[in-house]
Recover the amino acids of this structure.
């Protein structure tokens, strides 16, 4: 089983930093053959369309590299604002905290391994 | 008008400065956490629009007092190319750049008052207000 990557965003990121993080993370997923990525945004007091798009892109790129992404720890005020802004983050998995996100990843990976076993025995 | 503050937006780091200044003023007039988050997010979108489409500009913040209620107003002024069709620009999903097209329409939904004036070749001025 591959590793999980845990990324904690602790600063208010300007746009170039957010783009750089997206690229770094995508490279890292391939390099360590990660099967899961947890992005902890509990320190972020806003998510605007740029950061939202970065989260959605990272999640999509990870999927292409056979890794599952879970965004964890979104503050309720941020969630309310995001939806009103018009960003629904479709395709991005979310969990309340790191622990629940980790559970989600383990379950997902156990399930895909099970699928793999079934097809192998066919 | 109680006080004003102006921030120049010329690079993406300045968008962060705008977010911080708006947050500071929103906290000062005791907006709820959700309302703080809404106006900071709206300001972030508008400051970015100004930078990407207007070539940068200025954000001016005012604290308003109207009877017993207080509000926070932010003006986003650029001398960029202007917006030929404002209704189209306000529509979700419409963009002339490579963003998501949520900036203007999304910002409008996050505040109590929203106005936009734009003259092609002269620039754009967007004003948002959130009342407590």
């Amino acid at each position: 089983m591959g590793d999980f990557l845990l990324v904690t965003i602790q600063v208010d990121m300007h746009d170039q930093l957010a783009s750089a993080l997206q690229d770094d993370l995508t490279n890292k997923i391939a390099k360590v053959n990660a099967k899961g990525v947890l992005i902890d945004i509990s320190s972020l007091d806003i998510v605007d369309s740029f950061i939202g798009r970065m989260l959605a892109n990272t999640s999509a790129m990870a999927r292409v590299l056979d890794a599952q992404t879970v965004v964890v720890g979104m503050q309720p005020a941020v969630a309310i604002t995001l939806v009103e802004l018009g960003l629904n983050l479709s395709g991005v998995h979310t969990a309340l905290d790191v622990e629940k996100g980790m559970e989600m990843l383990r379950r997902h990976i156990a399930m895909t391994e099970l699928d793999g076993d079934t097809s192998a025995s066919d | 008008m109680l006080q004003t503050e102006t921030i120049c937006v010329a690079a993406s780091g300045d968008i962060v400065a705008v977010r911080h200044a708006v947050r500071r003023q929103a906290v000062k007039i005791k907006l709820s956490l959700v309302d703080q988050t809404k106006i900071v997010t709206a300001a972030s979108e508008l400051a970015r629009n100004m930078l990407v489409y207007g070539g940068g500009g200025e954000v001016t913040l005012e604290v308003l007092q109207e009877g017993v209620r207080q509000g926070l107003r932010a003006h986003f002024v650029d001398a960029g190319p202007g917006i030929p069709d404002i209704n189209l620009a306000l529509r979700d999903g419409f963009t002339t750049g490579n963003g998501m097209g949520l900036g203007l329409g999304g910002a409008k939904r996050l505040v109590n008052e929203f106005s936009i004036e734009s003259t092609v070749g002269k620039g754009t001025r967007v004003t948002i207000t959130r009342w407590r």
The mean pLDDT of chain B is 93. The first helix of chain B runs from residue 12 to 28. Residues 15 and 23 of chain B are 12 Å apart (CA to CA).
